[in-house]
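ok, trying the design again with the full structure, not the truncated one.
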């Protein structure tokens, strides 16, 4: 994977903001599954297709997906992470999760999480990581003092909770109640 330049990282953040949170700020409307025509996004960003492709390919978490629509026109969407205020259904099929998943969070959130469970907050889903290393990276976005929670996803799945796996490997579920949570380390 090629590293992005600073300018490309800045552009990538802007694309995340548009495709996950505020499409209207760029005059764009997402389709019900979250896609917009690539050409429309290029016009907003005033960049060439090659530059967008480099940003998509070099993105450290493969945040964006590009695919031809039924009409043959190339479209782009964010693979996960949309705000609840953006009415998008990615249409991901239910998936059988691994037996254990992880969630990294600032240690300061622990008392509240152990009382109320994991909530999706402003997003559509709670985001879970397949391993501790990934969970640590997610938590460190917000704090140097990170705790990692273990999620008993096997028991959740057995109890009928639905999981989805995003195109870039993030596990998504609606919420995680406290009975399925334990502190892996803090
Ligand atoms: C916390 C990144 C107190 C939760 C990552 C988290 C991910 C609670 C914060 C994606 C709580 C929400 C999402 C409760 C949850 N009490 N705090 N009851 N329930 N929280 O950003 O999981 O780089 O919405 O622990 O890789 O940190 O953007 O969720 O700290 O996939 O592509 O509330 O964002 O991807 O924060 O991260 P977020 P997240 P990108």
């Amino acid at each position: 994977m090629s590293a992005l330049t600073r300018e490309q990282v800045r552009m990538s953040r802007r694309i995340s903001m548009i495709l996950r949170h505020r499409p209207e700020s760029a005059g764009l409307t997402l389709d019900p599954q979250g896609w917009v025509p690539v050409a429309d996004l290029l016009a907003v960003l005033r960049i060439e297709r090659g530059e967008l492709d480099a940003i998509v390919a070099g993105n450290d978490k493969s945040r964006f997906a590009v695919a031809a629509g039924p009409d043959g026109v190339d479209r782009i969407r964010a693979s996960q992470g949309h705000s609840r205020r953006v009415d998008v259904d990615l249409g991901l099929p239910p998936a059988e999760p691994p037996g254990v998943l992880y969630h990294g969070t600032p240690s300061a959130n622990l008392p509240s999480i152990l009382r109320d469970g994991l909530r999706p907050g402003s997003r559509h889903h709670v985001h879970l990581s397949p391993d501790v290393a990934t969970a640590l990276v997610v938590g460190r976005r917000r704090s140097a003092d990170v705790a990692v929670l273990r999620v008993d996803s096997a028991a959740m799945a057995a109890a009928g909770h639905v999981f989805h796996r995003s195109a870039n490997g993030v596990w998504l579920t609606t919420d995680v109640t406290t009975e399925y949570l334990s502190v892996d380390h803090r």
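Keeping the full-length input from now on. The first helix runs from residue 6 to 21.
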